[in-house]
Amino acid sequence: MATSQPSAQTIQLNNIQLYYEAYNMEQKRSVFVAHPSSVHTFQAKMLSIQKL
Predict the structure, then answer these.
(1) Which domain of life is it from (predicted)?
(2) Are 45 and 14 in contact (CB under 8 A)?
(3) Which end of the chain, N or C, is less surrounded by CB atoms within 10 Å?
(4) Is 2 part of a structural domain of the chain?
(5) What is the rounded CA–CA span in Å between residue 32 and residue 24?
(6) Rounded to an integer, what distance in angstroms lies between the CA atom of residue 7 and that of residue 28?
(7) Domain membership flag for residue 4
């Protein structure tokens, strides 16, 4: 069964994966400045993906 378009869930998974990889890359380079609000947003995204 071939699917021509990815589902919304798949797109969301890919977006969060990209966000997570970018976050890790910045952490490793020690350039990322973690503001409380951005960390909270990141944690909320990771929590939301676990509920899918």
Answers:
(1) Bacteria
(2) no
(3) N
(4) no
(5) 9
(6) 32
(7) no
pLDDT at 36: 60
Q: How many domains does the chain have?
A: 1
* DSSP output for the chain: ---SS--HHHHHHHHHHHHHHHHHHHHHHT-----HHHHHHHHHHHHHHHT-
- The verdict on residue 28 lying in a domain is yes
pTM attached to this predicted model: 0.36
pLDDT for res 11: 77
Q: Is residue 46 part of a domain?
A: yes
Would you place residue 12 in the very low, low, confident or very high pLDDT band (cuts 50, 70, 90)? confident
31-49 tens-digit pLDDT:
445 556 666 677 777 777 7
Distance CA 1, CA 23 (A): 35
